[in-house]
Amino acid sequence: MSIPPLPHPAGPAPACTCAPAAEAPAPADGGEPDGAAGRFGPTHALILLIAVLGLGSGLFLAGTKLETVFALLGGCGAIGAATLTAAGGGRRLMSILVEAAVRSGTGK
Prior knowledge:
The chain has a domain at 65-108. α1 (42-61) packs antiparallel against α2. It has helices at 42-61, 66-87, 91-106. 54% of the residues lie in helices and 0% in strands. It is mostly helical. It is elongated, with a radius of gyration of 25 Å.
């Protein structure tokens, strides 16, 4: 069984008539642009919560000691927080994490 060739136009292809996409305007205060595409929302938090609970339960049921499970999940959380900070330009997230670390160090 052979496949017939597709027809090709005789002349050059016409230029794209698509209108260029308008860029989102930059915020006036120099902060992050508006839009939900790069934000961490409640759906993301729920998915991560389910993943962490599933992973922790699976490790515990496989016979891993509880201290090791907590250490592994804490390391995964730290990597996730660092990734979110780096990807989002995360000045706000970084300031929150530093403030939490300082408060825990002072005992408040």
